[in-house]
Amino acid sequence: MKDNAFTLFGEIEADETAVGGKRKGKRGRGAEGKTIVFGALQRKGMMNATIVENVKAVTLMPHLQDNIAKGSKLMTDELRSYKKIAALLDMEHDTVTHGSGQYAKGTTHTNTIEGFWSQLKRSLDGTHHVISPKMLHAYVSEFQWRYNNRKSVTHLFDLLLSRVSSLQG
Hints:
The protein is of the alpha/beta class. The chain has one domain (11-168): Nucleotidyltransferase, domain 5 (2-Layer Sandwich), CATH 3.30.420.10. Helices cover 38% and strands 21% of the residues. α2 (80-88) links the parallel β4 and β5 (92-95). α1 (57-67) crosses α2. The protein is globular, with a radius of gyration of 16 Å.
């Protein structure tokens, strides 16, 4: 179910999440023992997700630079890395400030990608309970594939079978 990265365009939501179960101590960014998953999602379109080492601008920059078309509008939360990247890429950028309770500002929000993270985490917890960081990329790829094929008129199982059979040749 490994998906290639797609070129996204138009209104793009970018966000990151920490995966790794409940632990004592700091929550969210910087929590101990968590694996960071970064994603960019085109509204009403495709999404790209990948495991990243950290949320520094230098780490996230290639993922946005290589996969977002020029002229797109980036919508993120208040993480400083996004502001820096948007400036370097000369990209229109708008933010919501989750830290002060702001989750939408007109059409600017990250609710779509937050919904994707929520589904990913609920499924991982409900189905697998514990996932090693080493294998997380496979589960993220599966969920990206499912999301990107959500509007297919062909049943997902049949899409998967056709993909497997094309690899057999």
